[in-house]
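Why should sequence recovery work at all? Because a backbone constrains its sequence more than one might expect. Tight turns favour small or flexible residues, buried strands favour hydrophobic ones, and helices have their own preferences. The token representation captures these environments compactly. In the example below, the structure is given first.
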């Protein structure tokens, strides 16, 4: 009597690895009516593409390997927004009764981002090979992080994957909305100040020397502000490379220091949280992310200790990330969530109290969602307020930098005109 033998997991993994390396072929074929059809198909070789087309009742005409673009593949980066849209699409299809493999095929065919299309195709083939969705997504930890995979695994275990994916889509859309708000608040003033510095440098390098030569030819005695600007211009002409190098080097050192040094990252994070208006926005954003992420994971059925592991990386703040990890350790030894939150000293009393009510009433996820909605609205209001406050401040800075320089250059001319 023959017995079925289970496939070695390593063999399955090797097969999936080979599939992920499949080449994409563009094909042209005739269907049963003689109508010309065209499309694309990932496969190991052209013969397999032709065989698959014949299996579908088509007569292959041409099968060509897709050439690589001169400057690399388009859509090489998979953005969180792409993942959010994908989650919403597959949740809708699964809720409508479309099988998962077919859902992946439909979504992949509609993808304009080539990299994400290949990822979805590979995940689909992994599922066809017997892997669960969580296992198939694990090959792409950058696009589908630990939090995403934990939620998918919980949804698969509870048999409510479509509901969980819909919740994940909403969650990612909310998180991206908060990020966009914060970027909007910081981008405008940074760009205006950068333009102001660039204009100042151009004036010091090209405009001020012309005035300086005119003043020297006239033999006029220069006021102190004018002399300071001329000295700054001479320094910039002689050492422009040092100034630009210092600015670029400072930015690079700041970014690299934050990535490589935990202490430096803590220092920067705490410094940002103490800033008057921006610090408040960052703090409210971190609390909103914490509450929204924990609410989603808890609602999906992920155990609290395991959920906090994923939540720590979603706060967007090193300070709050470490606080969440400390909370996880406290909860692991039997403490309540609200008590662990209070010990960190980073959460407002209202958040702690609402969490306590949620724990006592058995509606923790609902309370966390209410906290998230409140603080997301606070972030929106704070960003609008910041934009209103920054406009006059930016005008003052522009006036001091550019206007002050122009006035200092015209002071000798006014002085000479007064003596005539």
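From this structural description, the recovered sequence reads:
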């Amino acid at each position: 009597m023959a017995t079925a033998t289970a496939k070695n997991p390593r063999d399955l993994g090797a097969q999936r690895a080979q599939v992920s390396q499949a080449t994409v072929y563009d094909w042209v074929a005739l269907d049963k009516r003689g109508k010309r059809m065209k499309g694309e198909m990932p496969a190991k070789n052209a013969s397999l593409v032709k065989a698959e087309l014949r299996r579908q009742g088509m007569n292959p005409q041409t099968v060509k390997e897709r050439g690589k673009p001169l400057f690399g593949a388009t859509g090489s980066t998979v953005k969180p927004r792409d993942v959010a849209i994908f989650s919403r699409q597959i949740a809708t299809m699964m809720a409508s009764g479309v099988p998962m493999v077919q859902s992946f095929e439909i979504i992949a065919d509609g993808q304009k981002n080539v990299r994400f299309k290949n990822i979805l195709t590979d995940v689909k083939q992994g599922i066809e090979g017997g892997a669960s969705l969580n296992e198939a997504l694990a090959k792409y930890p950058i696009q589908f992080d630990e939090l995403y995979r934990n939620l998918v695994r919980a949804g698969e275990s509870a048999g409510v994957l479509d509901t969980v994916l819909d919740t994940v889509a909403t969650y990612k859309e909310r998180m991206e909305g908060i990020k966009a708000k914060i970027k909007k608040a910081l981008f405008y003033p940074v760009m205006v100040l950068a333009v102001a510095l660039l204009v100042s440098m151009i004036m010091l390098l090209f405009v001020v020397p012309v005035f300086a030569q005119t003043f020297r030819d006239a033999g006029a005695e220069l006021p102190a502000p004018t002399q300071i600007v001329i000295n700054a211009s001479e320094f910039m002409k002689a050492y422009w490379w040092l100034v630009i190098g210092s600015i670029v080097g400072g930015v690079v050192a700041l970014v690299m220091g934050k990535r490589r040094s935990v202490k430096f990252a803590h220092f920067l994070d705490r410094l940002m949280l103490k800033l008057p208006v921006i610090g408040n926005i960052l703090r409210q954003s971190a609390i909103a992310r914490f509450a929204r992420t924990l609410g989603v994971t808890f609602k999906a059925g992920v155990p609290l200790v395991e959920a906090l592991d994923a939540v720590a990386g979603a706060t967007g703040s090193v300070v709050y990330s470490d606080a969440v990890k400390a909370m996880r350790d406290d909860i692991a030894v039997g403490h309540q969530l609200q008590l662990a939150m209070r010990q960190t000293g980073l959460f407002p009393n209202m958040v702690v109290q609402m969490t306590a009510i949620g724990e006592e009433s058995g509606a923790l996820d609902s309370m966390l969602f209410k906290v998230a909605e409140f603080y997301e609205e606070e972030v929106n209001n704070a960003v609008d307020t910041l934009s209103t406050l920054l406009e006059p401040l930016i005008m003052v800075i522009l006036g001091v930098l550019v206007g002050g320089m122009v006035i200092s250059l015209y002071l000798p001319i006014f002085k000479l005109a007064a003596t005539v």
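A few observations help interpret the result. The CA atoms of residues 2 and 8 lie 18 Å apart.
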